[in-house]
Amino acid sequence: MGCCKFLRNQLLLIKIKKSLLKARIFMQIITLTSDSGTKDHYVASMKGAIVTLYSSAIIIDITHEIKPFDIAEAAHQLRNCFDDFPLGTVHIIGVDAEPHITPGSDDGAYPSIMKYKGQYIVANDNGFFGAFLNQNLPEEFYRLEKLVEAGKHYTFPTKQLLIPAACKILNGENLRSFATTRDKFKKALSPSVLVEKNLIKGYVVHIDAFGNLISNIHRQYFDRYEKDVPYTIYFRNKEYFIDQVSAGYNAVPPGDKVAIFNSNNLLEIAINRGANASTGGAEQLFGVRVGDMIRIEFTPRGSHDNFDSLFG
């Protein structure tokens, strides 16, 4: 009996140690997303500030190539890798990070913290949170009112405001000790998908480094239709089309256009091995830009739609 009790105690200690180690690792991860680029010293300065405040932080760069002030692109980049991070991860969004505060008014853009799916996002409340969440709801939301000095101008707000708050989270400080609970955040206007009887209408929301066109059409919209119903994907008005979704890029020969559902289940249009110095992938070959429309027309047996009206 004594031996069994000893083994049980040892197993319990091992579980406790594993839990503590896992919690410690979770609370060390911090990510950076910014529009600072990598030409200047800004990214190094941000990382130096982090390790000064929290020396054991594991810093992961999501991207620093966001177009200046483009919160929709920042939201897209974080949203598409968010679920790959463990609980307790803290994400810093250094895009349009300068506070816009009117004394005596509750309006403006305050640096804020959102808890969502057990992770934390520290960003300016400039519409980013609304763009990131779409129709989802956060677990908690806070304003960093206590860290913002009235009337002070911040020349590097990501380093001066967002990073100190993120490191307080890493250090396990109670959010209510340095932030104020709020139940509202700024919404953001983002293009939505229209699903009709025989038509899905979406938009290009991002173009990646390969020139691939990533839309906001999720696989779940496509799967509403029966698998044997013919369809055609139209883009760049009526000039270009694809009549099948492939399992991967190499399902077509090099240089051919291809449509796939990517790892985030978003419809993507690409040129297989088409990104090089002379072509630049689907973006340049098709002349498609962010915000351009993509249509999927389904033609079940017996149906007949006026195709030209879709582009009216």
Characterization of this structure:
The protein is of the alpha+beta class and 312 residues long. It has two domains: 2-181, S-adenosyl-l-methionine hydroxide adenosyltransferase, N-terminal (Rossmann fold); 194-311, Elongation Factor Tu (Ef-tu), domain 3, CATH 2.40.30.90. The chain contains seven helices and 17 strands. Strands 10, 11, 12, 13, 14, 15, 16 and 17 form an eight-stranded antiparallel β-sheet that branches. Strands 2-1-3-7-6-8-9 form a seven-stranded mixed β-sheet, with helices on both faces. The protein has a two-stranded antiparallel ribbon with strand order 4-5. α2 (42-53) packs parallel to α5. The longest helix has 25 residues, at 2-26.
How would you classify the helix and strand content by structural class? Answer: alpha+beta
Which sequence of SSEs, written as H and E, runs from N to C? Answer: HEHEHEEEEEHEHEEEEHEEEEHE
Number of strands: 17
Which regions contain 5 or more consecutive residues with pLDDT less than 50? 306-312
Distance between the termini: 82 Å
Q: Which value, in Å, is the CA radius of gyration? A: 24 Å
Key features of this structure:
single chain, 312 residues, alpha+beta, Rossmann fold, Elongation Factor Tu (Ef-tu), domain 3, 2 domains, 8-stranded antiparallel sheet, 7-stranded mixed sheet, 7 helices, disordered C terminus
Task: Give the arrangement of secondary structure elements.
Blueprint: H1 2-26, E1 29-34, H2 42-53, E2 58-63, H3 71-79, E3 90-94, E4 100-101, E5 108-109, E6 111-116, E7 119-124, H4 128-133, E8 140-143, H5 157-170, E9 180-181, E10 194-195, E11 199-207, E12 213-218, H6 219-222, E13 231-235, E14 240-242, E15 257-261, E16 266-271, H7 281-286, E17 293-298
Parallel strand pairs: 1-2, 1-3, 3-7
Antiparallel strand pairs: 4-5, 6-7, 6-8, 8-9, 10-11, 11-12, 11-17, 12-16, 13-14, 13-17, 15-16
Helix pairs in contact: 2-5
